[in-house]
Amino acid sequence: MTHTAQDETRVSREFWPKLKRVARSIPFAEDAIAAYYCALDRETPTHVRATLIGALAYFVLPFDMAPDFLPLVGFADDASVLAAAIASVRLHMTDRHRDAARRTLAEEGIADPS
């Protein structure tokens, strides 16, 4: 996946509104938030940021392979793309990113369903 400034802008603008709408419905909310924090962390290597921004941009796109409103399968493609991205860069996602994700879930009153 290639990282563009347009992708980063879209993710910055659309990630939180979408996540807040769907967080209780997806089992990967904590991973998505940790990926977001890692992607925007200026200490994260550029290639890692690019991979995560690409996956997060796919998550916020209004149209994708499986429409998000479909029960059970709607977020399967989003989860798959994000899981693949995280697997390829997992060594760069730190405890700091994951701790921030857990704090965000708690502060927003969103229980991660996983």
From TrEMBL:
Location(s), subcellular: Endomembrane system
Membrane association type: Multi-pass membrane protein
KW Transmembrane helix (keyword) present: yes
Keywords: Membrane, Transmembrane, Transmembrane helix
Domain DUF1232: 49-83
Domain of life from the UniProt record: Bacteria
GO CC annotations on file: endomembrane system
Pfam families reported in the protein's UniProt record: DUF1232 (PF06803)
Keyword Iron: no
Protein name, as recorded: DUF1232 domain-containing protein
